[in-house]
């Protein structure tokens, strides 16, 4: 998980009605989506979840990658955070093992590079 503080992203009026109260990150997710596209990723969409915003990345395998983005206040500080995960397709053969390790490692390295170039990463809460 990566965390940082920044005033680069605004909170859109009532955006937390699509997530949970006090959970933001739509502008962050849209910005990060564009940065990932520049890095060669094929983005399927950005969707709201109860924990924040999910950037779904297409792969050529029986899984997809998700970058989870959110902004949340801790006392008076708005902290932006993101993490990644792989989700296996429900249509895949349940007996076939799918190794997502390399895809997750590559995405994590790209994500850290993108964020480090633009923000000072902090320890997550």
Brief overview:
The protein is built from 2 helices and 6 strands.
What features would you describe in this structure?
The protein is built from 2 helices and 6 strands. By secondary structure, the chain is an alpha+beta fold. It has a single domain, classed as TATA-Binding Protein, CATH 3.30.310. Strands 2-3-4-5-1-6 form a 6-stranded antiparallel β-sheet. The radius of gyration is 15 Å and the shape is globular. The mean pLDDT is 92.
Q: What distinguishing features does this structure have?
A:
125 residues, TATA-Binding Protein, alpha+beta, 6-stranded antiparallel sheet, 6 strands, 2 helices, globular, single chain, 25% helix
Largest sheet: 6 strands, antiparallel
Number of strands: 6
What is the straight-line distance between the termini?
10 Å
Structural class: alpha+beta
- Dominant shape: globular
Q: What series of H and E elements makes up the topology?
A: EHEEEEHE
- Total helical segments: 2
User: Could you list the spans in which at least 5 consecutive residues all have pLDDT below 50?
Assistant: none
CATH fold-level label:
TATA-Binding Protein
| CATH class designation | Alpha Beta
Please tell me the overall pLDDT. Answer: 92
What percentage of the residues does DSSP assign to strands (E)?
Answer: 25-35%
Under the CATH scheme, the architecture is 2-Layer Sandwich
Strand order of the largest sheet: 2-3-4-5-1-6
State the domain count. 1
Radius of gyration: 15 Å
Question: Roughly how much helix do the residues carry, as a percent range?
Answer: 10-25%
